[in-house]
Amino acid sequence: MTARAAPLSIRRRLTLQLLTGAAVMALVLFLIVYGFARQIGVESQDRILAAAATSILDATTVQSGEVRVDIPYSAFTMLDNAVDDRVFYRITQDGIGLTGYDDLPAARQDAGSGAAFDTVSYRGEALRVATLSRRVSVGGTPARIAVTVGQTQDTQAEMLARILRMTMLIGLGFFAASALLAVLAGRSTAASLRRLAGSVSRRGPADLRPVVAEVPQEMQPLVRSLNSLIARLSGALNRTEDFIAEAAHRVRTPLATVRAHADNTLRRVDKEENRAALREMIRAIDESSRAAGQLLDHAMVSLRADQMELTPVRLRPLVLELVDRLRPVAELKDMDLHFEATGDPEIMGDAILIQNAVRNILDNAIKYAPSESPVDVRLVVSGDRARLTVRDRGRGFPPTGSEGLTGRFARGDNAADIVGSGLGLTIADEVARAHHGQLSIANNEGGPGACVQLSFPLR
Amino acid sequence: MRFLLVEDNAQLAAAVLDRLSLDGHVVDLAGNLGMAEEFISTTDYDLILLDIMLPDGDGRDFLNAQRAQGRDTPVIVLTARSEVSDRVGALDMGADDYIPKPFDFAELEARCRAVLRRRTGTATNVKRFGSVAFDPLAGTLTKGDTVIALRNRELRLLEVFFAAPGQIIPKPKLVDRLFSYDEDVSENAIEVYVGRLRKHLDGSDVAIVTVRGLGYRLQVP
Known about the structure:
The complex is a heterodimer of chains A (459) and B (221). Chain A is α+β, with helices and mostly antiparallel strands and 459 residues long. Chain A has helices at residues 10-58, 73-77, 154-201, 220-268, 272-306, 315-332, 351-368, 424-434, and strands at 60-63, 66-69, 87-93, 96-100, 116-122, 125-138, 141-152, 311-314, 336-341, 346-349, 374-382, 385-391, 438-443, 450-457. In chain A, helix 4 packs antiparallel against helix 5. Chain B is built from eight helices and 14 strands.
C-alpha cells in the first residue's frame, strides 16, 4: 500500500494562515512602535540639547569688545536628568574656540538660523550634538558665536532597550492573542462543518428528509447540493421499490393465467401422456414463478434492509399470525403446525422483513417434510436473545453439509425433486444479519428432519 | 357458493372463472371497482376475490370503503405484487386473507374454506346421501349420530366423490386433486386415503367401490 497524504484540513489551514498573518502583523507593529519610540527619544534629546545651547547662547554677551560667556547653571541641570550621561560643550567665535572642549565637533550647520543636530563619534563614544549660533558685533566687527552642546546617548540607549523590550512584549502579546483567536476561528469554522456532518450522519438510514442544519452562508451551496443529492437518492429508491412491485405484477399475472389454464385443462384431459405433460408444465410454471417471486422478494428485502427503520416488534403475535396463515397450506398435506412460545420477546427491527424471513423458513418446513408429519415452531427467550426454532420431520439438510445453503441460489443436493429457488434461506439469513441476529441450520439431533433457528438480540 | 371475482386481467379472470364453475360455484366477474360496486349493491356474495391493482383504483381502498359502509362479505385479496411490501396493507384494510399470484387452486380453495369457516361457522351446503351428511366447510362427516372430523385430504377426496356420485373417477385425477405437482407420489398413494374414507363410511349406505382398471365410484342409495 502506498502512503497517502493526510487530507487537507480546513481548520489547520485556516489556523496556519491566521497565525502567519498574526506573526507578520506583530513584526510590523514592533517595527513601527520601535522606530517611533526611537525617533521620539532622539527628538526629546535634541530639544533639551537645543534648549541648553540656547540658554548658553543667550547668556553670551559682548562687553567692551570682548565676548563674555557666563554659562548658566540651568543649562546643565536640563541635561542632568540622566545620571550616567556625560555632557560636553564648546563655544567658538568664528570657529575659534573660546571655551569648552576644543576637539568637540560641531554639527554641520545649514544657512538657517535654527539649531543643527548631529550624531558624531567623540572620544570613542557616540555623541548627540546640537549647535546653535548667532551673529554679534564685537568691537564693530561682526562675528559668529557658535555654541555646541553634546551629550552621550547612554540613557537614551537604555531607554531604547527598555522600549525594545516593551515593544517586543507587546508584539508577542499581540501575536499570542491573535494566535488564540486564529485557533478559535479555525475551530468554530470546523465546528459548523462538524455540525452539518453530524446532522447528516445522526439521522436514521431511512431518513431522507432535506438537511436543515444551521450553517454559515458560505456552506449553503454545500447543503443545497447535499439536499438535491438526497432528493435524487430518495427518488431513485422509491423508483426501485415501484419498479420491483411493477415487475412482480407484470411477471406474476401472466404466470397465474397460464397456471390456472393448465390446472383447468388437467381437470378435463383424460389421456395420461397429456396429463403428464400438463403436470410438467405446471411444475415448470411453479418453478419460474417461485424464482421470480423470490428474486423480487430478495431485491425488496435487500432494499429494505439497507434503509431499515427500527421499530419495536413483538415476535409472538408476528409468528402466530404467520403460522395461522400457513396452516391452510400445511393442511393440504395433512400437516400440523404446532406453535409454542414462552414469553413475548420484543426486538427492534423491521416487522415486514422479519415476517418474510420467518415465512421462508416455515415454507421450507412445509415443503420438504412429508405428509402428515408435524412441524414444531418454538419461540423462547434465552439470555439476551429471542430464539425461534422451526423443526420438521423431513429429509433434513444433505449429509454433505449445510454450509453454503444460505448463499444465493444454493440448494441442497437432496432437494432436486422439490420446487425451490434457492433464495429462501438467503433471505432469512440476510434479514437475520440486518438485525444483528443469526440464522443457524442443522439437522435434528437423533432424528430425521431439519432444525432452523433464527435468533435476534432482545430490545 | 356465490363468488364475486374482481380482476382486470381478462385472461386470468376467465381461467379462475372456469375453475370455480368447474367446482360448481356461481361466479360474477367485475373488471373494475365500479362494476364490483354495482354487483355488490344488488347481490349477496359468499366471498369476494379482490385484485389489488385495478384500472380505476386500488383494491385496498375499495376494501376499506366496503368495511366502512358496514359490508362484511369475506374478502380474499389476490396480489401480484411483492409480498414484502403488500401483505400488511391488505390485512390491515380488512381483508380476511390474501394469496399471491400465481396461486395453486388447491391453496385458494383451502383459504376460501378457512375464511368461510372462520366467518360464517355454519354450514350452508351440507351434502346428504342416504344416512350420510358431509359438511365440507366444517370438515365433518355425519353418519347417523356419529360425527367424524376429516383430515384435509380425506375432505378433499370426499368432495370429489360427493360432487359426482355414481361416476367413475380415474385414479390419476384423484392424485392430481390430492397432491401438489411437485410431490412424487404413485397412484397407489390414493389407496391409503380411499381406505380411510371407506373406514369412515363403514356401516352406512354409502360406499366407495373399486372399478377394476378404471378407478373408483361413489355408490349411493
